[in-house]
C-alpha cells in the first residue's frame, strides 16, 4: 500500500513559465501574449496558466483569464495605454511564481507579427502535393500583410522547412 504523504513528498509548485513574454497580433485595443513551459513542472503535470495585466502606472493586477495554452488574447486594452503582463503556472500542488513582461506594451503602438491564419484546412491530398485553404488572421499586427510563408514538418522530426512564400 502506498502512503499518500510519501507519494506527494517529491511534488512541489511549478517554476515560473519560461520567457520572455512575446507580444503578437497587436490591434488598437488587443494583443496576443505567449510564453514557454516552466523549467520545472514540480513533479506533476501543469494544469493551466493564470494571466494578469495592469496598466504600467498602477499597482494592482487584474485577471485576464486562465488557459491551458501557451498564449492568450488580451482584450479591452485602452488605446495608447502602457500595460504589463504576468503569467503563472499551476499544478495540483499549487500556483508557482510569475513570469513578468520585460517592458510595458502600449496598445496600438507596437507593430508585431500577425496572429496566425484562421480556419486552415486541407482541400486535396495528392501523392506529392497538398492543397490548403485558410482565412486571413484576426490581427495584422499593426501593419499590412505582405504574404504567407508555407512550411512543412516531417512527422518524425521537430524541424520545419520552408516550402514557399506567397505574396
Automatic annotation (TrEMBL):
Pfam families: fn3. Residues 1-10 have a biased composition (Polar residues). Transmembrane segments: none annotated. Residues 1-24 are annotated as: Disordered. SMART domains: FN3. InterPro entries: FN3_dom, FN3_sf, Ig-like_fold. This is Titin isoform x1. It comes from Triatoma infestans.
Amino acid at each position: 500500500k502506498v502512503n499518500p504523504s510519501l507519494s506527494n513528498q517529491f511534488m512541489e509548485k511549478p517554476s515560473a513559465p519560461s520567457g520572455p513574454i512575446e507580444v503578437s497580433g497587436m490591434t488598437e485595443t488587443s494583443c496576443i501574449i505567449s510564453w514557454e513551459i516552466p523549467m520545472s513542472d514540480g513533479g506533476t503535470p501543469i494544469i493551466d496558466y493564470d494571466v494578469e495585466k495592469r496598466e504600467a502606472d498602477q499597482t494592482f493586477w487584474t485577471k485576464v483569464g486562465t488557459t491551458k495554452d501557451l498564449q492568450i488574447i488580451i482584450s479591452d486594452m485602452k488605446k495608447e495605454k502602457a500595460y504589463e503582463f504576468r503569467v503563472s503556472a499551476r499544478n495540483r500542488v499549487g500556483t508557482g511564481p510569475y513570469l513578468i513582461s520585460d517592458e510595458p506594451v502600449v496598445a496600438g503602438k507596437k507593430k508585431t507579427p500577425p496572429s496566425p491564419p484562421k480556419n486552415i484546412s486541407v482541400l486535396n491530398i495528392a501523392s506529392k502535393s497538398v492543397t490548403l485553404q485558410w482565412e486571413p488572421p484576426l490581427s495584422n499586427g499593426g501593419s499590412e500583410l505582405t504574404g504567407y510563408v508555407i512550411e512543412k514538418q516531417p512527422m518524425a522530426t521537430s524541424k520545419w522547412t520552408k516550402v514557399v512564400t506567397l505574396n
